[in-house]
């Protein structure tokens, strides 16, 4: 059953070599574009990096995961980037016009994997470490 108006997007678990190559080209150029805009606008105390770019199998959509430091500015920055996504895509197309025929549509997300790792590290470093103190495991079970 197919719903009208919804386009099927195919993100496979295993990326082909072509998807990986296109993702790395897009990642490198997106970093240059975003960091160049930060420098050009004179924004200080802000660091943006593109942690990963995942391209669909049909090469029509690219998921761009951004890491932002400081984290409290991430949501505002994501809104600004999404509002300027057409300009970013145009700049990207000018950079990769000799390598790609068609630039995929860009969807931006905040990469929160570093926050997740930090929460795990903090939980393991705290007093309530279930690895060192097995008595805590009963307390954490939910019925």
Characterize the structure shown.
With 143 residues, the protein is an alpha+beta fold. The model is unreliable at 1-6 (pLDDT under 50). The longest helix is centred in the N-terminal third of the chain and has 24 residues, at 17-40. A hairpin with a 5-residue loop joins strand 1 (47-55) and strand 2. The protein has helices spanning 17-40, 74-83, 85-95, 113-125, 136-140, and strands spanning 47-55, 61-69, 105-110. A three-stranded mixed β-sheet has the order 1-2-3. Helices cover 44% and strands 17% of the residues. It contains five helices and three strands.
Question: Topology of this structure?
Answer:
Elements: H1 17-40, E1 47-55, E2 61-69, H2 74-83, H3 85-95, E3 105-110, H4 113-125, H5 136-140
Parallel strand pairs: 2-3
Antiparallel strand pairs: 1-2
- Reading the helices and strands in chain order gives HEEHHEHH
Structural category: alpha+beta
Distance N to C terminus: 38 Å
- Strands of the widest sheet, in order across it, are 1-2-3
Q: How many helical stretches?
A: 5
What portion of the residues fall into strands of 2 or more residues? 15-25%
- What is the averaged pLDDT score? 83
Helicity range of the residues? 40-55%
Q: What does the radius of gyration come to?
A: 20 Å
Overall geometry comes to flat
How many strand segments?
Answer: 3
Largest sheet: 3 strands, mixed
In the predicted model, the low-confidence regions spanning at least 5 consecutive residues are 1-6
């Amino acid at each position: 059953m197919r719903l009208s108006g919804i386009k099927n997007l195919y993100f496979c678990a295993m990326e082909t070599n072509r998807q990986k190559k296109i993702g790395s080209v897009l990642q490198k150029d997106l970093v240059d574009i975003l960091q160049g805009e930060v420098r050009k606008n004179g924004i200080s105390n802000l660091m943006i990096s593109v942690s990963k770019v995942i391209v669909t199998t049909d090469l029509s959509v690219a998921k761009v995961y951004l890491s932002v430091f400081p984290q409290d500015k991430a949501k505002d920055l994501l809104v600004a980037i999404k509002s300027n996504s057409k300009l970013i895509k145009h700049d990207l197309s000018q950079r990769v016009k000799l390598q790609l025929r068609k630039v995929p549509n860009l969807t931006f997300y905040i990469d929160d994997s570093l926050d997740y790792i930090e929460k795990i590290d903090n939980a393991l470093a705290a007093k309530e470490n279930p690895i060192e103190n097995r008595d805590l495991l009963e307390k954490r079970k939910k019925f």
